[in-house]
Design goal:
The structure is a homotetramer. By secondary structure, the first copy, chain A, is an alpha/beta fold. Chain A is built from 13 helices and 15 strands. The first copy, chain A, has two domains: 159 residues, NAD(P)-binding Rossmann-like Domain (Rossmann fold); 162 residues, 2-Layer Sandwich (Dihydrodipicolinate Reductase, domain 2). Chain A starts with a strand and ends in a 9-residue tail after the last helix. The interface between A and D is large, with 38 and 38 residues.
């Protein structure tokens, strides 16, 4: 039985974490905190938790968190996590950080794309990028997990085998991604009011989104060479889900290879409990993965081009579900506990 | 050709007014203003107006408005309108005010329900409640129109004949109303963010909404006696439209009368261009009126009870469409100009 | 460990049952059937179940179902269930029927409102109306459960205490109910196409819906006298959830009583794991119960009238969740197993 | 004043045509027909047209149509139009066909992609592809207009200048298109039921959609050489609008050219009343064009790649709006009559 704290409980990822962990037989939620005007029962903030959890959500009290918990989930905004992480690690706690603060090995990349000085570079080398499909072994013993972004989770899983086996031209990768509104976090902005989003659809941060370098970093590692994607995110008028439609030109290596891509993907993800590959030419819809921790992938090959579609629930495999999957790996629970 | 100003152009009603008036052959929009951080072309604020109107929207400049316009539309928040109305009237302008500031004959009722002192009681007697179906004759010559609220428009039109002919018990009227999100105005509030509204539905201000006394005032006038409704509004996950489901117990007078209610309603609204009565037992859907200035009404009678359903587009018949209908009456345009 | 069959797996309730039962540690799904053109893996029909269940869904084979299962869920259309139930009961199986076929004690009421002859009146007396909050003791030993309708579940739970204690005038009850689209089942009809429903809202079967007599039957029992409600359902542009706004005139008994209604409701539902009462004057939203098996209830009292709002997820507490709650009671599982 | 007939009035495009033409001062709708079980007033089929048009919609009666109309709009399914067109043309009528039947100069392409023999090849050479931005001169005198598909309208307008000036590599063009649900027509299919579409998003007909060859045909003409796009359409959970995100590699010619693409696009579309170009790096949203006949285009250039986003309302510029624009050109009305 492990004791956990959730910092940032009033955001969408924090809310989702509470829901998942309440179903987890090996976890006790001991502390819930957030930037909040006045302390309030979490079941007042989210009436859906009435009769299910009785904790009060208040401003974070690190001393209390350290005294009562083994593991801390940080569902905090970018740049805020690194205020707390060093103290928690120093106190011997294990940490799963859902923000971007520890995702980049090169602090300069973070600083450029998040437009903020990095205050805790010393922990960067020890932080493990929390994508179990690639880093499971290191996650087991990690003290600090940098939980991946939602777009990167879908994109890296969708492109992983192609990058690893050198099947696509490095400069040709286009990721046309579409996300539900919770992907942007609970932000007070006129552009997220219901009548602005409903019956609308648009691209944003065209080719300048901060998740692109995260995708580049991980795909480059898999490919063994520098790789840079064209990334265009769009905003869908729905609550949850990311669908990434990916296009890339084949390399001569691929053109020679005879094996069906779906079969190659199946081998690559053979032991993965949360990656499902469709038959060649069949593609996932958001509703196949919404409310689940799965990443579903479909593939089609034309004469010159490969088309891959990867779908996840941005709050589960793209955030809180993956965080709990990481926790399950770290503490030896069955990897799918509370996630099915 | 008349020259008009629109104050409060950045709200939903202001935006809708621009769209309607751009199609009006007898109107020139001369001035557009709003509470705004910095002046901006209205076609930058609403790209849909690109190539269609080139005015700059800035903080209101009353002097300029008075110099250039015959008629001023105020699409301002409640309590703000009455800062401007007296000056405009004094300068000889005609005014159509979409706020609640001049809707109540008794300032005390306004002050109680809007929780704000009324600063311009002298103009209250002259203000005409802008519901053409009841006050058309007075609207023609009015200098100041108090454009009705959206819920009151649907409710008063739906109950008008019943109140006027004494067919229902005064204390028995229940209005269960449902509104699209634009009905609440463009408010920055967490509860209006897309993921809060989408896939959700709820009642709010249960039996304490500020539109109830507006309904009471007008129905009491029609009935010739004091009448008080039970009013429960709900928030629909869609952009535009109000549907009010109305229940009332029949009086003995009604129980004796043989005439079908639908036929009685048709007579009552015989000359009305924007009220449509369904056959007895058939009811309107929001999509029948969305994007139109119509109020559609369906009626059904059971042994003891009458059920009426009235539907409007809250931004058209419930706000800006009705405002232009009033303008058409005031200036002698065909009443449906720019409204079909 | 019990073995179950699901008949009617291609409807919304059947799909939901599979999802819930896959999380239930005491249940093995052994047989899945439906009216279907050709047998197909259930994970092809619902790709979200890929890697989770591997059964083939085919036309029902009663012999096989009887041989392999202890309990059968019937998620079949009305009038179809009674073709199968007698045979299953005769073979010694326990049955939870989600259709309306066994809900009415008086077959004549069923025949009138479902416009179909009842073919199995002999089992009607033994069938238990599966609302645990009222019939838990009988559910424990029942062989045949008539799982309640979605509107009746919300309405009866919302009105239960008022009916039982005689606090409202029997003829005055108005239920203005609003349901998500899955409430109507997976019907091929032009009126359920996305563009017909999206951005629309309307009433249907005004005062003639077949769930009204089900509500009347159960409230009359609770009240100990004949009671008849006015029931108007509406269709919401969202997937799941029912919110019933209920109005009733107080009896003199209520007018004398001093106790707050919320407190009286809390006592009435004191031991109920799935009913939650809000503080007086606070009301539930659909999103508080969507995805859960809870029924949330809010109450407000004015001078003459009581307003109650009850909210459920129509596919959970209104159908498949309640069916599993009944199963848990029948087999001695903790009542909330697989339901939190 | 011209007299028109609308064939196929019960589809989305037919419904939209009625709405537009009712606002057109130079048009009288004389005949409305559709495949329909029994004749019915069009105001019964669409209650929103109550009090506005009183015609009965029945099966088409060609003799009557020919006797009473100058111009016939065919909003019929593909393969049905060509049953009627030859007879109408022979009778001297002008025809605007919204189906695909006359869009292809090469009947073999049509037959391959629509999987149906072409029965009227003789009229193919005379049919004018109804994209005013390219064929205005020929539209003026055309007897038969093949109104373009919705995806092709957005795609061809978005890529037109790039193809015409040879700025992108012919084999590199990727069109990732997203459409609202009315784009698919009013089809009875389980996959278009509200709960299937709502909160979902998916690709369909990946790289095999029948609109791709229509795009290829027109872009090849503009480019003066064979051009073949990769086209992946997706289905958005909203009623109306198409947004196409287009990617292409630059040619050396483009790499040398200094002129901003936005400026080049503005010149190309200088006299077009319904094409609006955003400033470089700014992009349209669906809501900027929904309910309008505009095509809005945004452009961004990176080192190797050009990104273009084009947005239209699929029922207006993508179907019925463009059809009326063509009619305005054919009959010498101001081109934007009834379209603003």
């Amino acid at each position: 039985m492990i004791n956990v704290a959730i910092m940032g409980a009033t955001g969408y990822a924090g809310e989702e974490l509470i829901g998942i962990l309440l179903r987890h037989p090996g976890v006790r939620i001991k502390n819930i905190s957030a930037k909040i005007e006045a302390p309030a029962r979490i079941s007042r903030i989210y009436p859906k938790f009435q009769n299910r959890i009785d904790l009060v959500c208040a401003e974070p009290d690190l001393k209390e968190i350290i005294a009562s918990c083994d593991l801390v989930f940080l569902a905090l905004p970018h740049t805020v996590s690194m205020e707390f992480v060093p103290k928690l690690i120093k106190a011997g706690k294990r940490v799963i950080d859902l923000s971007a603060d520890y995702r980049f090995k090169d602090a300069a990349v973070y600083e450029k794309h998040y437009n903020h000085r990095h205050k805790d570079k010393t922990l960067l080398p020890a932080a493990v990028f929390g994508l179990p499909e690639i880093y499971r072994a290191r996650i087991k013993t990690a003290r600090l997990i940098a939980n991946p972004g939602c777009y990167p989770t879908a994109s890296i899983l969708g492109l992983g085998p192609l990058a690893a086996f050198g099947l696509v031209e490095p400069g040709s990768i286009i990721i046309d991604a579409k996300s539900g509104v919770t992907g942007a976090g609970r932000k007070m902005s006129e552009s997220f009011l219901f009548p602005q989003i409903n019956e609308d659809f648009k691209a944003y941060k065209v080719d300048v989104h901060q998740h692109a370098p995260e995708i580049d970093q991980e795909l480059s590692k898999l490919a063994g060479k520098k790789l840079k994607v064209t990334f265009v995110p769009h905003l869908l008028p729905l609550n949850r889900g990311i669908l990434a439609t990916i296009y890339a030109r084949k390399t001569p290596a691929k053109q020679r290879a005879k094996e069906k891509l779906a079969s190659l993907y199946r081998k690559f993800y053979k032991k993965e409990p949360f990656v499902r590959i469709r038959d060649e030419g069949e593609f996932p819809a958001l509703k196949d993965v919404a409310g689940t921790n799965f990443c579903d992938i479909g593939i089609k090959e034309s004469a010159e081009c490969i088309i891959v579609i990867a779908a996840i629930d941005n709050l589960l495999k793209g955030a809180s579900g993956q965080a709990v999957q990481n926790m399950n790996i770290m503490y030896g629970f069955a990897e799918d506990t509370a996630l099915l």
